[in-house]
Amino acid sequence: MAQIIEMPKLSDTMTVGTLVKWLKNEGDVVKSGTMLAEVETDKATMELECFFDGTLLKIFAPAGSQVELGAPLCAVGKPGETVEVPVGTAPPPEAKPPQAPEARMEPKPEPVVVKATTPPPAAAAATSAPAVTAPVHAAAPARAEGERVRISPLARKLALEKGVSPANLVGSGPGGRIVRADVLAAQAAGPGKAAPAAAKSGATFGTSLLAKGPIQEERAVPVSTMRGVIAKRLLESKTQIPHFYVEIEVDAGPMLDLRQQLNSALEKEGVKLSVNDFILKGCAEALRRVPTVNGSWEQTQIRYFGAAHVSFAVAIEDGLITPVVRDAHLKSVFAISAEAKSLGKLAKEKKLKPDQFTGGTFCVSNLGMMGIDRFSAIINPPNAAILAVGTTVKKPVVKDDQIVVGQRMSLTLSCDHRVVDGAVGAQFLAALRDLLEKPALLLI
Description:
Helices cover 24% and strands 24% of the residues. By secondary structure, it is an alpha+beta fold. It folds into three domains: 3-77, CATH 2.40.50.100; 159-201, no CATH class; 242-443, 2-Layer Sandwich (Chloramphenicol Acetyltransferase). Strands 11-20-19-18-14-17 form a six-stranded mixed β-sheet. The chain is globular, with a radius of gyration of 31 Å.
């Protein structure tokens, strides 16, 4: 009798899975442990494993389809065995011929009228010089192989900084020389477009150097499984969890100095600690000092965890995911750094396993690396708190009654008021500040 393989639950929040592609075809011989297909969950793309020996007799869900948990995916059995399509299984959608996109009338760019300068006497005897109408995005003239590109030193330096190739530019300086304005015009035109020639003396401009037209194509994109689950969970979190926020600034100078010293001394060993590594370790130790924050609301009870499983937000295509550094309170900052780098790489490749992104007891969201001064994060259920980390900013501060230059970092703790009271949240941030401002404690 043929065995029916159903859509398994590959993550704790998964309700449907998307069949990205089948790795085996109908009629292929498969064994227990063979990977049959790639399935996208709300967290990652994972491989579907076969648990039977036999032949892949029938595929019920085509690639690209969304399948609910427990719905049939395929059948495995003996060669030639007849398999009936399970009741309720939707037939594969018929292919539809591609439709031509609706034609759109785009406004044509206004031309730039360039008045020709008086040619040298010798040239004037052979031909006249009528006014020339050049398009805004004029192509650079073809140059003979080995011909020197005439460009000013300032324009050459600017082109190198902006990543613009001088060979593709139209010079507007004396004798066709490329000047600074030409490089800036090429940059404004964007990649794949030739820069407009800057106007010479007496030129009339019809457009500015700023790009024209729509910022992107108008379109409606179906919500992916991941984006749909993120939207649902964040809405539930924000509407069902009573958030409150506490914020402090810490002196990040000592931590940055220690980080630089360690990275310089251990460079040959391949050690490169990040600010986030110290934050993750600091949070694990702060949870040890204020363990009430390391809990979860369970309606009729509050569960307090004995281990600090610290997760951290990683931005990936079409969403984000929170890999978990398990038992962070027992690991050194060096071990946390190595594990976080490995988990971050797997997250971006969508290769995390369920046990690598589930079971976190506390979460860190760091946008400081993107230049964000401060922000408030939404709690990631079932956690009772999440820490939002801002960038380090140099600013004047008072130290020993003197105004000096300080390096300050903003930390905002979002708390579930059902589990964490205001005083407890303040105690946690005070403990974290003490650890980050005395970072040698994190190396013990």
